[in-house]
Amino acid sequence: MTPHEHDLGLVHDLGTLRRRNVLRLLVGAGVAVVAGCSADETPSASGSTPTPSATSSTPSSTPSSTSSAVDVDEIPQETAGPYPGDGSNGPNVLTESGIVRSDLTKSFGSASGVASGVPLTVELVVLDAAKDTALTGAAVYLWHCDALGRYSLYSEGAEDENYLRGVQAADADGKVTFTTIFPAAYSGRWPHIHFEVYASLSEATAAGKISATSQLAFPSAPCEAVYATNGYDGSSQNMSRTSLEDDGVFGEDDGVQQLATVTGSVQQGYVARLTVGV
Questions:
Q1: Number of separate domains in the chain
Q2: Which contacts of 238-246 are long-range, i.e. CB under 8 A and separated by 24 or more positions?
Q3: What's the CATH code of the domain at 103?
Q4: What is the tens place of the pLDDT at every residue in 99-135?
Q5: pTM for this entry
């Protein structure tokens, strides 16, 4: 897909779907709720990268990983973007055997690729926004780009892979956990991860009705540390040309309800946590 096609897709998606829930954005005390959309453009593989640096970042207004004593607002609905892999825009990975998994680093089925990068654990807590209670048994389909900004199933060089995509059912606390890698920053977008929430695992694996579609944003400090390592060519430059304030998705509220809590280091890996109201 050319950059021009990419830009048109993002503008179209934002224009049609962004307006649905903008007015629902409220700042919760100590709570970040994810929102957003997607677009894709592989960053340029230019320049060498310096040695990794140890860092951790814990932004304010972010939740704990449990669902107790949390007052959460309903997540703003957003477009899934050009590369969801849910059957709405090309390939459908949700109905394939192997999609239900926690480790997203490897492709499954007939694909054999492995995504390399700085380790990342993603923890989402899915709550009923009306009752502030855990949505036990709800399912989350999560996907994101690799260290070069490519989306499996779609991007050149990754069309035959299905890594960095997977589905998990929420436990009794509404929590799902994925093991993956830190995504790249590609041209025109702030670093992010996509996901869809379904009422149940059976609904998700049938590519059924989606309860919510949204996105997680990363704070800048861990991104800067990760993008200073080998393998993330172009990400530092791409990130320097945008910001949460200017991002076409997060810019309306500076990502206040979308920003994850991120802890860890390049050497030990990172953990990103977010509470999601549905």
A1: 1
A2: 238/43, 238/149, 238/184, 238/185, 238/186, 238/187, 238/188, 238/189, 239/185, 239/190, 239/191, 241/187, 242/185, 242/188, 242/189, 242/190, 243/190, 244/190, 244/217, 244/220
A3: 2.60.130.10
A4: 999 999 999 999 999 999 999 999 999 999 999 999 9
A5: 0.77
